[in-house]
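Changelog excerpt

This revision adds worked examples to the README so contributors can see how folded entries look when concatenated. The first example is reproduced verbatim below.
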Amino acid sequence: MSAGEVGAERRALGISLWVSVGSAAGAIMLGVLSGTRIIVFDGAYMGIGLILTAISLKASSASAGGPTRRFPFGRDAFTPLVVLIQGLAVAGTLLVAAGDAVVIIRDGGSPVSAAIIAVYGVITAAIGFALVWWMGRAAPDSDLVVAEIAQWRAGAILSVMMVLGAVVALVLQGLGLDDVALYVDPVLVLVACLILAYIPVGLIRTGLNELLEGAPSKELDAAITDAVQAVRQFGLQKPLIRSGKVGRKLYVEVDFVVAGTDWNVGEEDAVRRAVVKALEPLGLDVWAYVALTAAPDLFE
């Protein structure tokens, strides 16, 4: 990752951090004072996001530090580790909120101020979607920022649900169905948890895949294959390609079977340089290993 990309990543995470501080504090205070669980839940969600953003900033610094004597291959694994932690934290938050909502429904619901929920929902939705848009433009290639965007998008969707729920509560109260309106708050929390469930699932899957050195996404794998095809001008056969992505680091192994007597070290180096150059446009920190061998069994 270039110095400019690192700077953009840290700037995006830093702004997200400070917005989270103000939003979480305000939400929890308003939720407690008004006795509205959906707002307390939203504040707790942002509070957890605040902690995770701080961790992301640390991970960004560690990953950008490059290889060291203790970590000769760098510390890029911090990135998928933080993504995995974010996914688990969001999942935990949703489970706790859903459990609390079920208890409230069992106990007969709870009164809410529809007007407070509506105003709060409109303001926080605007903040969330604005941050999603800005961070997506500021650091689109950062896995940490992408995970941060997922959190803010989830929060913004939750805020939209609040506004819809407030409208439903106002309609019910207008129709004289105050007893039914008591269930709007906890039901709203349950619906929001179901809608947001895809976010932690995606984060956990992505983090685990990279930590376990799984294959990259289909789009990236196709791009790698297309790039390697660029060296076919050397008259080589179809190679065996293995790749894996960890944070911004992309490992690519390309093995060609050749007639050993037809190649020298200089020609092999030319193939290696061609493969590395072809992979550069991917915009990742590419660690490429290119081998030409007359013994196919060495690939196994």
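The second example, added in the same revision:
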Amino acid sequence: MTLSIPIPRGRGRKDLLKKFGWTSLASVVQMLAGIASVIVLTRFLTPADYGLFGIAIMAVAAAEVLTGGILSSPIEQKADISRADLNSAFWANFGLALVCSAVTLPAAALVVSSLNTPDALPVIAAACLLMTLTAAGIVPESLLRRRQQFRALAKAGMAAALAGLAVAITLAVMGAGVWSLIGLELVRRAILVAANFTLARWRPDGGLDLAATRETLPFVSGMLAANALGRLDRIAPQIAATVFFGPQGLGLLTVATRIAEQIQSFVAQPVGAMALPVLSNAAGDEARFHNLMADAWRAISISSFPMLAGFAAIAPLLVPMVVGSEFASVGVISAITVLAYLRVVASKVNIAATQAAGKSLTASASIATSVAAHLVLLVILAPFGVIAIAFASLLRGWLTWPFAGWFVKVTTGFSMLRQAAILLPPFFASLLMGAGVYALSSLLQTHLNPVAALAVLIVAGVLLYAGLLWLLDPWVRKAIASPQFQRLIFKAGTP
């Protein structure tokens, strides 16, 4: 039986802006909670603690590819869904999580024994529990995204982030070490799963339907390939750090990556969370589909590129101030990692567009090119240090960007010239702004205290980026000169 849960068409750009506002607010709160956890927890934890946590995350990485939402992705993409689709996705996801846990634990026991890191095994067991918990809540979350209930998802995400932060800080102060990181994730994920079921008003009311599962295999297989490659891409630097520099090196990379991911999630999550369901809704109308793609790229490039480049410019000054001397070296590492995310945030639209068009295998081909380049660069650069590992990620992303644009053109018909016209002006304006801020920071550090220097750098960065964007982007100049923008400015200035 088909469920009457169509993907809502929305009410145009005004409706999308409201949803974007809620997802943006949630991203701000979650970013602040994530940054606060790093600032506080690094005062109580050691790089080795973060190394153990990183090992546990790597241990369940392959399993999370299968259980992290792949089997429920058709719920967001298909025009119609049935109860059998929902029930099958739930039990397949949850069952796979249990099977993966049963396989991961004995395999991990052999590995940690050979690496002489027995303390990692209980943490890996806890990571398996976290994976299973998340798998249980994937289907109701996909239902909420299908209905485009981003306000409800945003509220749940904010509550979960703040509660997890409170628990983690409490455990860290009590001397729990790496278990404070586990506690953070356990509370955060438990609240999200409970909220997803409550808000979606759905419970499994049937078993696994093999026919319904087989029907989704063509789309799911492409999504699986894309996510497996993406997960390999993310853990490859961690594996390299562990092999060459042990838990200590992995701990430093983990902290730097957590900082960079909080910034990236903040700037990209609002668009990334909405991209697949919104674009899927327009997949049958090429003109509307392309317009939504252009809107998404402009939103993510004009707003996120300068924040990423600006953070990278001030990270060598800011990060050592907030994480303590033991983690001081992560400032440069996090700056390089954040610059690598300039490509990543734009790719969120690329991947969502190809998946919305029903061609997820093409997205996998694009990601495969990027992963191959990353692995080659890691083999060459990893022995030179953790900073070199981060630099490999940066080079990979920027060098393979044209290939990603070509794959998008082949899949969706959106020309590479139009992609470049949207993305390149904010990209170059952001890089030039970041270079200017970094140069200014070297000068200010000798004349001002760090807090005052940061305030000056942020203001200078905003003004410099605004001027550069106006000079480099014709679309921005046209938008500012438009009657709609002028009316908006007039209303804002009217008492």
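Reviewer comment on example two: The longest helix spans residues 210-281. Residues 1-11 have pLDDT under 50 and may be disordered.
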